Predict the 3D structure of the following.
Amino acid sequence: MPTDDVEPEAQPATSTEDAPNVFRTDDGAQDGLAKCARCGATEISLNVATGNLRCGFCRFEWATDNAIEAFNLNGDISKLSGILVGSGSSDIVPSTEEILTFKCSACGAEVVIDTNNSTQARCHWCRNTLSMNQQVPNGAVPDMILPFTVEKSTAVEKIASFVGKRKFFAHPKFRAEFNAENVMGVYLPYMVVDINAHARMTGEGEHQTRSYTVKVGDKQEQRYDADLFNVVREFDIQVNDLTVESSSDRLDQNTSQNSNNIINTIMPFDVENSVRYDSNYLAGFTSERRDSNLDQLSPIAHTQAEDITRHRVNDSLAFYDRGVRWTAEEVDVRGQRWVSAYLPVWLYSYQQRNSSGKTFLHYVAVNARTGETMGSVPLHQSKLLLVAGVVQLVGTVIGLVLVAVGI
Ligand SMILES: [Zn+2]
Ligand SMILES: [Zn+2]
C-alpha cells in the first residue's frame, strides 16, 4: 500500500467559519433605462405622500417588494449562525471607480454616472433618466431603502418650529440667515443588523436582611446586614434590527466640529418597511455613500448587543436589593445578519464660523418616517450669560426676601 508523505496544505488565512456568507440582493436588477410598466415613460420618482414610485407621465404608482420579505430577513434569529451579509453590504473595494459609464438603452449614447453623488443621470441626447441598480463594490448601491413619507412642507414646518422655540437664544447671524426652505432630503447609509448571541454573566449579589443604626462616638451611623450570593445568568439573546451608521463622517462623533449625535436622537426608523433598492427612489434627493466595512462596524454592533444584554438581565435581579457586581461577562455572538440600508432624513444645516475662523456644523434633522425632530442651534453667548445672570439675580433677591420674612 503506497504511503502518502505529502505535507498537509497550509490552512487559508481566514477560516470558512469566519468568512461572511453573501446573499444577492440585486438579482434581476437592471442598470440603464427604467420604464413605467403602464406607459413606458422613464420619468419615475418617489411620491412622498404614499411612499410609492410614481410615473410622472401617466401617474401610475407602484412599490418595489418589501426587502425583509424579498430577502427572507424575517427568519428566526435564534437559528442564525455565522455571518450572513447582503451583497450590498460586502466589503468596499478601494480601487472601485466612482465614475461609471452606461450605454443609454434608448439612444445608444454613452452617459457617465458619478456614483459618489448619485446613482442616476440623464442622457444628454435623449433626456432619459438612467439608473444604476446593480451593486458595484463601492458602497453606492445598498441592499434596501426606506422611502421618504414625511413631505418637505411638513419637514419645513417642523424645523421652523424647532428653531422658533430657540430663537431667543440663537445667534443673531443664524437668525438672520435662517430659512427653513433650504432643507434637503438625504438618504443616510446604515447597516441593519440581527444578532444571535449567547450570554453568560457571573458575579456577586447582595440581599439585605437587616438595617439598623449604631452610635459611633456622638454620631448615629446606618448599618446593614446582607447575605452574599454567587449570581450566574446564562441565556440566549436575539437582537432584531439594530441600526449602525455606516458613513465614517457620521461615525465621527467629534463634538468640537459637528453635532452628529443628533441623528441618533431621531431614531428609530421603521426599517421593517424597507423596500428593495431602486435608484428611482433617489430622484430629487441626495444620498451619502457607505464607506465603512463589516470589520469596522462589527465592534460597534457587538458593544450595543452587550449593552442590551446587560439591560435585559436587570429584570431578573430584583432580589439583590443591594446590587450585583459582575466579575465576568461573556457575550458570544453565534450568528449575525447584515444588510445595508438607506434611511431618509430631512436636514437643515448651518455652518457656524467663529471669530478665530473655526467652523462648527450645526443642523436640525427630521426623521422622514416619524417626523421626530432634533437639532442644534448656534447660541448667542452674551444673551445667554445675561439671562443666566438675571436668573441668578432674581434667585438671590427671592432668597433675601425669604430671609427677611424669616422663613
Ligand atoms: Zn406611466
Ligand atoms: Zn439616450
